[in-house]
Amino acid sequence: VQLQASGGGLAQAGGSLRLSCAASGRTFSSYVMGWFRQAPGKEREFVAAINRGGIGIGTTYADSVKGRFTISRDNAKNMVYLQMNSLKPEDTAVYYCAAGGPVLANFTPYSWGQGTQVTVSS
């Protein structure tokens, strides 16, 4: 599966951004989908993931974004989204979408999209 992320940009602290990730291929619904981020000088970290289609839309989040970010997917459009609210300067990073599996609780990325930059000013 090929992934194309978009929607990054500059936001003020407390503001919102919505990231989108378009996936190619006919098996999109079979993948657990997720978002990761990498800040300068830091390792890539998990942000959020959403279960495969048809199983029940379970989600999981990093503690640092819980309650502020929401991941969703539209299997009919091969899209996954990350709604980011109450942004903080520490959310500044390059954000990557990923497709993987095998299950939500043990999400392992198989494919990565290119990153999209999110910058939050204080």
Low-confidence stretches: none
Distinct helical segment count:
0
Distance, first to last CA? 37 Å
Biggest sheet features: 7 strands, mixed
Quantity of strands, as a count: 11
- Write down the overall mean pLDDT: 94
Helix fraction by DSSP (H/I, runs of at least 4): under 10%
Quote the beta fraction: over 45%
Order of helices and strands: EEEEEEEEEEE
Structural write-up:
0% of the residues lie in helices and 52% in strands. With 122 residues, it is an all-beta fold. It is globular and about 40 Å long. The protein starts with a strand and ends with a strand.
Short description:
The protein has about 120 residues and is an all-beta fold. Helices cover about 0% and strands about 50% of the residues.
Pick out its properties.
single chain, 122 residues, mainly beta, seven-stranded mixed β-sheet, globular
Per-chain topology:
Blueprint: E1 3-6, E2 9-12, E3 17-23, E4 32-38, E5 45-50, E6 59-61, E7 69-74, E8 79-84, E9 93-101, E10 108-112, E11 116-121
Parallel strand pairs: 2-11
Antiparallel strand pairs: 1-3, 3-8, 4-5, 4-9, 5-6, 7-8, 9-10, 9-11
